[in-house]
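Recap for those who missed Tuesday's class. We walked through two folding examples back to back. For each one, the amino acid string is listed first and its predicted structure tokens come directly after. Nothing is annotated here on purpose, so try labeling regions yourself before you check the end of the notes.
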Amino acid sequence: MFVRVKKIGAYEYLYLVENAREGGRHVQRVIKALGRRDEVEASGLIDGLIASAARHSRRSIVLSSFYRGQLPELHRLSIGPDLVFGRLWAEMGCRNALKSLVAGLFLRCRARGLSHGAAPADDLGFRPPCQ
């Protein structure tokens, strides 16, 4: 069931409608004419109907309780790529390995009298493809 809006003249009317199958085809049957849209909205009829129907919906009951603050606060964990790769980085020892490589490179540069960051490609482990 659903509410259908039908424009007749200058006004819009609301109808409670259901889909049915008759003779192998689908038709819409009007269950109840609710009235002119502006009058129905002003009277609060739709809000009352929704509130009444919502009492019988599990999903709606949970959401209503949540919005009223009647549910305990839930804690959730974020397991996005940054956390996954951060944990892998730590468990695989990448930080310590990189630290020791950089420290060794720094010491070799210093021994050659180079400022840090000016290491030749050989010290970084890179070799040109053609020598």
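Example two. Treat it independently of the first, because the proteins are unrelated.
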Amino acid sequence: MRGKDEQQLDVFSYVSPEQRVPQDHPLRSLRAMTDEALSELQPRFNRLYAETGRPSIAPEKLLRALLLQALYSVRSERLLMEQLAVRGESLDSLVKFLA
């Protein structure tokens, strides 16, 4: 079953992803392009997932995370998480910003 690609308020954060990312950050312009490309892929994603079962992580979120990994030139998912933690950011907040 395909998970939903929706934003959820952070339980332990009082700062929204919109507030964390500066207005002139390149991710802001990239978000529109990413949303457009992923919306075109939604019918394909829908065909790949079963109607029943436990919901997965939305494929759009996974692709956004991979995009961030490539943009930050990080060689593994674990290192990406470590680097974001050092910067005081969370992967969820950046992925949600791109959502």
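Answers for example two:
Helices lie at 17-20, 26-48, 59-71, 77-86, 91-98.
Residues 26-48 form the longest helix (23 residues).
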